[in-house]
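User: Hello, beginner here. Can you help me understand these amino acid letters and fold codes? It all follows right here:
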Amino acid sequence: VQLVESGGGLVQAGGSLRLSCAASVDRYSSFSRYVIAWFRQAPGKEREFVSAISRSNSPYYADSVKGRFTISRNNAKNTVYLQMNGLKSDDTAVYYCAADRQVIVSSYFSPASYAYWGQGTQVTVSS
């Protein structure tokens, strides 16, 4: 599986961005069988969970983004989106998408649960 993030950029506090994670899967697999998650990493900090979407389209969010971010997936396009509204300076980080077929709900929040990662996209929120 190859993952490519896009949609990052510079935005003022209170603004919005939509990140995309486009996946390439082999002919023997199906994108719909993957759990897709977004993580972020700010300079000097550990990578932290942001959001995940299950195989059955159930969304999960970190408390810090709940009510501001929305995750969705389009299996026909092999793409997951992260709509980010009400951005704050604390949201500044490199955002990564991750994928795995085996991860269980209790492990959605752990980076170690995901076998496949994108290269990341920078999100910078100016105050």
